[in-house]
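re: ur question from the group chat, yeah i did fold both. here u go
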Amino acid sequence: MSTSASFSSSVTAIAVILATMGVVAAIEIVIPLHARGRWHRDHLAPNLALTLLTFGTNVFLNVALLALVVFLETKRFGLLGLLSDAPLAAAFLGIAALDLAFYAAHVSWHSIPALWRFHAVHHSDPAVDVTTTIRQHPVESLMRYAAMAAMVVVVGPSAAAFAVYRVASAVNGLLEHANIRAPRWLDRLLSLVTSWPHMHKVHHSRRPAQTDTNFGNLFSVWDRLFGTFTPSWQGTQIHYGLDGLDVPRVQSTRGLLALPFRGLAPGDHGEPHSARPGVVGATASPDVLIKSVVSVSDNCS
């Protein structure tokens, strides 16, 4: 696949994702999980701004990673090259391997203070809906693609498997963040395989005991296998966001972009967070956190 073709397919994928976001947003109006409040209105502009910024970054990263996938496939490089006579099995294992790479990377973003600083931009949203899906710092895009690239080099998935995973991951991401009500029986059934509709919402809790669970991107099996699973029904009762970061000035586009670079990283949920050593001091108060973000955002102006 040529670079121009890869770029064109990436742009088309972005257009499809935006259209799907619109459809999901319409469904949120019809069957909302939670009634729309102030934050559902106030977070729209910064969430969409970060989404568009992420698309602008990812279109180039995706082209580069797809080129790597195609190159390795032609060389039959990677563990899956041994399954060239079983393409369906190789494709399934390739998709599973990419999803496992995301799970491992996601756990590291919550465990390593320097990485949590950037991932906290996504977690700081006080109201989770479809616009939260791609609310992320540009540096997190680099983190995500680095994780995928590492797994690509190891296993050598086919271009087809890579494309299927990227599409499935995007669609699932929109659904798992969507503010859509689902019957408990359906939620319980779907959580046996995937992380939507309510399983991932547990991960957006202000409580560390819930936040540091349900890391899976596409499949729920990794959380079940590695002991980080929290039942999906709890996702209907979550208080979203990060304590100390609900101030509108912090929740602006500029404030969110500045968030990782302030003196103290977020993530203590208003209490010492021993699960993320070094992320924040036990004595850090919400006022200190807010002032440091505002100070950095002012310096960026």
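okk and heres the other one u asked abt
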Amino acid sequence: MVRRSNIKVVFWGTYDTGKPRNRIFLRGLKENSVTVFECHRSVWGGIEDKSQISGVLTYLRLVVSWIFAYPLLIYKYFRQPAHDVVFIGYLGQFDVLILWFFAKLRGKPIVLDVFISLYDSIVYDRGLIRPYNPIAWLIYALEWLSFKAADMVLIDTDSHREYLVKTFGLDPEKTGKVLVGVEPEYFSGSEGGGVGPDQSDKFTFLFYGQFIPLHGIPTIIEAARLVERDSVEIVLIGRGQEGDLIRKMLDETPVNCIRWIPWVEYTALTRYIQSSDVCLGIFGDSAKAGRVIPNKVYQILNSGKPLLTRNSSAIRELLIADQPGVYLVPPADPKMLAAKMVELIELGRDQLNIRYHTEVREQIAPKSIGRELTEYLRKAVG
């Protein structure tokens, strides 16, 4: 049995370092005294939303990047020092199929962090292709094979894990849950309270993220129409798949209390969070929306701000509906969302301007996330 203090891990593949989950995993392992050998080749640089990849040149660049990445990664893998296990981070379903044979040659188990199911996201959540499209079958087969190739498959919630077990026929003993976590240096907030430097006189709700169906932005817009008043501002930060739909909705029937900012830098998000009175999570009604806790929720929690989001089995794994600073509403229900927004407006910012969620901050810190991940790595080693 490999002790936690001396386990050695090769963190291998084309994993996307632009995603907080991979950065948190790397940091968390190191904070738990795990020896990590990074073996990485970037192919995702500059691509925020993979579903919005378009254009022949962009596809060609990705194909060329992969063609050159894998031979180099395999070569580098055989030059890695002695290790106990290989970890493949998001997006790793392709990587595990490439590495499987070579890891077996060295007698090393592979742990794959799925984070999101490609099949679920592309076919059902985002609806980019239909379930009976041959491409959908191909994606399912590829993903099924990648899960079978891994010795351990990780996901972010129990709800999500149960989906993988049911949909892909995985052995529950081969699966595990590790929360997404947060990068506290970017989302710690101010210890003295929630008021940010740019807070206006208006009561401010903030949403930020990619404009994807899971987020339920049309629900936010319809709710905004019901609560619109001069004393309220709803800030939307983002762009993505539903950007054109959102623009059409706002052009056809403007909502004066909405301010749309196309994007801000990751490191600048904390200023907008601290300048808001209430932060909005997700409100989509897809099955996936009920299984995930997105990055933004962890960031809001660690910032200590009130959180208003959809009720789901996933969110209840981490939070209690009636705990201070947590407000849950049914998915895709603008009337209920508007009613809760009005309730919070009437409660007033003086009542909301305290630091919430201190009880979960340690649980979602990188060291705690790394501790959970380490246990699964040790389990894979045996």
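fwiw on the second one: The first strand starts at residue 8 and ends at 13. The longest helix spans residues 56-78. idk if thats what u expected
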